[in-house]
Amino acid sequence: MSSSNLKNYYIWGIKALVFIIPFLSVWIATSMYFPYITGRNFGFRILVEVALVLYIALAILDKRYRPRMNLLSWAILVFVGIVGIADLFGVDPMRSLWSNYERMEGYITILHLGAYFFVLTNLFRSKKEWLVFFRVFLAAGLWVGIYGVLQIFGVKEAIQGNGARIDGTIGNPTYLAVYLTLIIGLSLILFFNTQSRSWKYFYGSIIAFLISIMFFTASRGAALAWAIAVPLFLILYLWLFRKEKGGEKVRKIMIGILIAMVIAPPLFLLIKNQSWVREHPVLSRFTQISFQERTTRSRFMIWGMGAQGFLERPLLGWGQENYLQVFSKYYNPSLYDQEPWFDRSHNIVFDWLINAGILGLLAYLSLFTTYYVLFARGWKSGKVGKKEGLVLLVLPIAYFIQNLFVFDNINTYIIFFTLLAYVNNWESESIVERRDRVIAEIKPSLIALAVSGLIALPIVYLANVKPALQARSIISGLAATSSSKDPVGETLSAFEKALSYNTFGNGEALEQLGRVTRNLLDQDVPNQIKTRFINYLVPKIEEYLKKHPNDIRIHLFIADIYQSAINIDESYVLKAREHFEAALALSPQKQQILTALANNFLFTGESEKSFELLRKAIDVEPSNIEAHGNYAIYAVLASRNDLVAEEIAEMNRLQKNLEKRGESAFNDYLDQLKRIAEIYRRVDQIQNAIIIYQELIRLSPTNVNFQTALKELQSK
């Protein structure tokens, strides 16, 4: 075989692999746990690993393909190195290395992104090759956009859009908005690099289509990013091309867009209270922008918690995938009306401060800094056209702004590192320009191919195939619960198989088995079946917690299972307490844990301890209506109706003070009154239950359920 043929085999092999990568964003791996995340991440890793094997052989064969180091290349290496050190000395190095199925990031993803960058930088040597690669991304983005259209018309379901927002094949509306922003940027690069009018119309149509799809994501972070990036692009374009011949029509259109973007915000403020705006599924989200809105409030609070975590470990942070420990330790009780757990700070700056400290953040920001240094050189030397250059100038800004309100994922990471490689490639010498004689090292190349391939095989299996099989087994276990043949045996068998793979997904496998077991404990099935699940699950979780003692969610899962199985074994109540107390030590101000532990003490008749914990739950955040409701319910059980009256009065006062938060506080108040009434009913204090339902009907006279419940009570 000639060296020329061998080189071509390597090059086309690598290209075939990397050309698949853009299409990973359209793959929904329904047979795996977290189908929008796991499949495409495993796919990316395997493709990069195989491409790296071929690239090593290519670089040995032909020295012109060996890495050329410059500012951005060094920045990538420094970033990968600092994150690696931070993860190694973090609070849970194994979690930092592998992450979990829900996120699939961790250090292993950083390593693969770094390898992807170097392979791309040294693979594509001409502008034509890069533009072909960008067209592949555009084709994938168009596919994602069409899927979004199907969601708009109800043909496909948007799993996280609540029926109003689309998420495409990406699986999250905000993720989709960031992804489409980057795809639109690549489309503009293609637009400015073609002289064909037909192709310009084609690319322009695609851009307009994708922008319309972005509207239906209703992503406010994306809207802010575009509100800054688009005017910046337009102003720079109008200034740089103010004297361009034949561009008068384009300039007029751009001026019109710029004026419209200036007028739009105040105009929207004037019409935002119109019914057609407030009832629109997308526009209504933008009417809710305020410092009192739930999402906005939660962002500021979790950023504050991230800042506290950074101050505790400022240099190298906590290691990747450990924000949950920061969230638990510095939990702000004012988050009581938000989702119970956050594993990200939803801000790229705070995320990297937690992941790898100030050194990690600086290393991450250096990717942007060195990108712009190389961009400036390319602009000055004429390696990039000015119109394309404007896109490359503004696109990372839009990307970064959006990431101030969300966090990255593999779909956007891939495109970002592609852009880095594209700009980095400008400083590499073209193969066509090089005339020096190259000595082909065929035999060493084939040896390198064989050795690196042998090394890659176990890595591919251990790092990708095994955890992918485990992700499939988890889905099989969940599906087996509805089996018509042997749901118990099939479910346990599937989860046994899942845990036998013994990968980084063990925690999530145990968590899902825990959910199944917990649901089973509430069902009318023989105790021997419940015992069978408990006897298998409990030792596995206890073993897992020895390796990950700070996994607060698993502590709470096993505690809840123990407590729910007290009728099977009374000693479980103390085992549950042990884990509730471990969770409380990790998050001392989490009202959910205080309430659960109070309930545990109630089982052992230690009512004073229960009241003490419930009072603490109120004290850490007095505006939490549910905490007052819990205290009132325990007061009912303790026959302390005087305390019940006090708590109801306090809840009434709170819901009036919290009216600025909208209907949620009022509905919380109604829910707590209903809970108290139902407890009165259970302890046969019917008259007190009637009084509360009469108050509920006064507050919500159209609620049929309240009226029906009152009639039933009055008939007794």
Any chance you could write out the topology, listing elements then pairs?
Elements: H1 3-18, H2 38-61, H3 71-88, H4 93-98, H5 106-123, H6 127-152, H7 173-192, H8 197-215, H9 220-240, H10 248-271, H11 275-278, H12 283-287, H13 294-312, H14 323-329, H15 348-381, H16 386-402, H17 410-424, H18 442-480, H19 487-500, H20 506-521, H21 527-547, H22 552-564, H23 572-586, H24 591-603, H25 607-620, H26 625-637, H27 641-657, H28 663-682, H29 686-699, H30 704-714
Give a structural overview.
The protein has helices spanning 3-18, 38-61, 71-88, 93-98, 106-123, 127-152, 173-192, 197-215, 220-240, 248-271, 275-278, 283-287, 294-312, 323-329, 348-381, 386-402, 410-424, 442-480, 487-500, 506-521, 527-547, 552-564, 572-586, 591-603, 607-620, 625-637, 641-657, 663-682, 686-699, 704-714. α3 (71-88) runs antiparallel to α5 (106-123) and α7 runs antiparallel to α8. The protein is globular and about 90 Å long. It has 30 helices and no strands. It folds into two domains: 67-440, no CATH class; 472-714, Tetratricopeptide repeat domain (Serine Threonine Protein Phosphatase 5, Tetratricopeptide repeat), CATH 1.25.40.
Radius of gyration: 29 Å
Main beta sheet: none
Low-confidence stretches: 429-436
N-to-C CA distance: 94 Å
SSE-based structural type: mainly alpha
Assembly state: single chain
Structurally, how many domains make up the residues?
Answer: 2
Mean pLDDT: 90
Number of strands: 0
What is the chain-wise order of helices and strands? HHHHHHHHHHHHHHHHHHHHHHHHHHHHHH
Q: Strand-residue fraction?
A: under 5%
Helix percentage: over 70%
Number of helices: 30
**Which descriptor suits the 3D outline?**
globular
